[in-house]
Amino acid sequence: MAAVQFLRVFREPQNDSMNRTRLHNRRSFLRQALMAGICSAFTRTWSTESVRKPLPLVALFDKVTHQAGLSLEETTELVAASGVDGVDCAVRPRDRIEPERVREDLPRYEALLRARGKRVWLLTTAILGVETPHARTILETARAVGIRHYRLGFLRKASDRAVADQIRELRQQLRELVAWNRELGLCALLQNHSPSGPSQYLGGDLREMADLLEGFSPKTVAVAFDLGHALLVHGDDWSGHFERLRPHVGVVYVKDTDRKRRFVRFGEGEFGRTGFFARLRELGYEAPLSLHIEFEWSQAGRSSRESLELAVRESAAALRRWWEHS
Predict the structure, then answer these.
(1) C-alpha–C-alpha distance, residues 297 and 313, integer Å
(2) C-alpha dist (Å) from residue 77 to 63, 71, 94, 200
(3) Label partner for 155 (CA 20 to 30 A): which of 23, 119, 189, 209?
(4) Alpha helix stretches (DSSP H) within the chain
(5) What is the Cα–Cα distance from 316 to 57, expressed in whole angstroms?
(6) From the CA atom positions of the chain, what is the Rg in Å?
(7) DSSP annotation string for 64-124
(8) 195 preceded by cis ω (within 30°)?
(9) pLDDT single digits (tens) 83-117
């Protein structure tokens, strides 16, 4: 209707008095249309900038519940009570689920969590290649319950061999796993772990990690970026290394770190002051965050389910604050 009126203003001949009136109306109409356009553009810009992505899903690394002696059922209850979205399940020898039990226990665990509105979002394994015992069964079961990312086992350096040779050998192992990953729709994760010196962890030095990942699609092999370990190895230089690894970031591990005391309660270390979550926002990060309880969580020297639940709840709350203020 406004468009029709607009056309009539310009098409209909009138006398002088009516022309002046029409001219006034025309100018008024144009001013209103211009202001409406400006307001609309401002509203769209404000809406786009003000809508902030919500916190990604938070998955508790359940190594800590195994260490606390909790069953799968008790872990499910703790997860539900502490406000996280599920677990990063440790499927490896002497941990949350034994590899030979994965076909039975992982689906049961997933069912327990789903009944409480939670999920097994990630796996942490001891897999280092296709020859690792139970590797195929673990990955097929992971796919069956809807898991996308699994972490590989610890990459320990041999002090008597050149690092370049070790990287070359590991890349060959990764190529063999990539074929499985493509078939199953999975992505293997390499964690940067400290310390990174001789006889320690390959890839703890993020320059080594970049060499390990070069040429691999991040859809099949990616980094489980651990800022806590990066701070311990690289200090303030972690930022430049992260920028190099950005295209390969698959999952982020969260723990708070003090360079003198190592891993501390969330809020007592440096994580919240690094601006790291702002970088994740820029990256468009959408994978789950793996929440690691690496600090002493017992109270008054006593370890109980209640004190662990409190530690998880408080850590998750700190994580949310960091995200909201990033």
Answers:
(1) 12
(2) 15, 10, 22, 36
(3) 119
(4) 2-11, 16-50, 63-67, 72-82, 102-114, 135-144, 163-184, 206-213, 227-234, 238-245, 276-283, 305-324
(5) 11
(6) 27
(7) HHHHTT--HHHHHHHHHHHT--EEEEEESTTSSB-GGGHHHHHHHHHHHHHTTT-EEEEEE
(8) yes
(9) 999 999 999 999 999 999 999 999 999 999 999 99
